[in-house]
Amino acid sequence: MKTLTIDLGARSYPIYIGTGLLSRRDLFTPHIGGEQVMVVTNDVVGPLYLERLLATLGLPDEAALVLPDGERHKTLETVNRIFDALLERRYSRNATLVALGGGVIGDIVGFAAACYQRGIDFIQVPTTLLAQVDSSVGGKTGVNHPLGKNMIGAFHQPRAVIADIATLDTLPERELQAGIAEVIKYGLIRDAPFFTWLEDHIEALRRRDPDALTYAVERSCRNKAEVVAADEREGGLRAILNFGHTFGHAIEAGMGYGRYLHGEAVAIGMCQAADLSARLGLLPRRDVQRIESLLARAGLPTTPPAAMDGAAFLRHMAVDKKNRDGQIRLILLEEIGRATLPRPVPRESLEATLHEYGRSGA
Ligand SMILES: NC(=O)c1ccc[n+]([C@@H]2O[C@H](COP(=O)([O-])OP(=O)(O)OC[C@H]3O[C@@H](n4cnc5c(N)ncnc54)[C@H](O)[C@@H]3O)[C@@H](O)[C@H]2O)c1
Ligand SMILES: O=C(O)C(=O)C[C@@H](O)[C@H](O)[C@H](O)COP(=O)(O)O
Ligand SMILES: [Zn+2]
């Protein structure tokens, strides 16, 4: 097992990465403050891993809450179901929530923990590659609004992240690929040697080679932890973690939540952001091809759906959280391994990228 620490100055918390961790009670107990614990999961992950986790924690079935699966349930209504359960079961301020699942469960449960009685503890137990490399770390929590992705949320850090790589054995291939998109993102924004490593090991990752997976999770978490430690609330540097997301979130909201997986939408968005970077003379065109080629080898889409024309993109990008004074700002690449901070871009260049991808779209 590897242990990383995310250091936020006044606070820090561990990220445990390894196999068999769902059975390691000793990893959980130091991060549970009181006697009341609720494990929140969904109806896909629950049947796979809930019984084992409850046994590890010595909890009865009544300590669990099973929510419906899917991005379309990442809503305030679902968060309210957690509040209902906490209140009906008389959970106090020193209770701990345990989020068992992918990024959707982690974001929902984290947000419920941020709000219930003005904030209770929670532990992230991520079971998708995407959640293990990205969403479980860093404290962004929240839910979607029909008009915009993750529009209602809070920063609320978990007490610990416990990433059991063995849970990835049951992950559907499409979900694994979606997670690889966020892994590739770290190579693009701040870790060129990791990008090269990914070019050499993408097939090993896709066939779930345990060493390759463990290495990718650890290196991704290390990158994320360093960025979040430097800028917890996205005053500056943290925005680079949003590379490709301005386009990607537009696809998720525009197509209807759940039609495109988050990682798929981000993969397309990273191609668009790379193209725009080249148009603006920041990134060599050959690097755009290198990026598209690696994403395609990962089994990811690289062009947007035909239904997302330029106008649809611009409508959704108009509510991006990085906008200032109503102006769209984008993260660009100066080279593979070096991202810019968010910056306004000339409208005609943005429209040229949207037009180019509109023409090639599936
Ligand atoms: N908070 C953050 O910093 C952050 C970062 C990246 C993404 N996100 C959010 O994360 C979400 C995407 O997360 P995701 O890709 O994990 O999707 P997800 O949570 O929907 O999980 C994907 C699917 O896999 C299932 N699943 C989970 N673990 C499984 C397992 N071990 N075996 C079999 N099936 C399993 C889930 O039930 C679901 O059907 C998006 O809402 C995105 O906005 C948040
Ligand atoms: O942790 C971050 O910061 C990120 O931006 C990570 C992203 O991969 C993630 O999708 C995040 O949820 C996006 O946040 P948002 O603020 O753009 O909603
Ligand atoms: Zn993301």
TrEMBL record:
Location, primary (coarse class): cytoplasm
GO annotation, biological process: amino acid biosynthetic process; aromatic amino acid family biosynthetic process; chorismate biosynthetic process
Keyword list, A-Z: Amino-acid biosynthesis, Aromatic amino acid biosynthesis, Cobalt, Cytoplasm, Lyase, Metal-binding, NAD, Nucleotide-binding, Zinc
Biological or metabolic pathway of the protein: Metabolic intermediate biosynthesis; chorismate biosynthesis; chorismate from D-erythrose 4-phosphate and phosphoenolpyruvate: step 2/7
GO molecular function: 3-dehydroquinate synthase activity; metal ion binding; nucleotide binding
Keyword ATP-binding listed: no
Function: Catalyzes the conversion of 3-deoxy-D-arabino-heptulosonate 7-phosphate (DAHP) to dehydroquinate (DHQ).
Protein name per Swiss-Prot or TrEMBL: 3-dehydroquinate synthase
Recorded name of the encoding gene: aroB
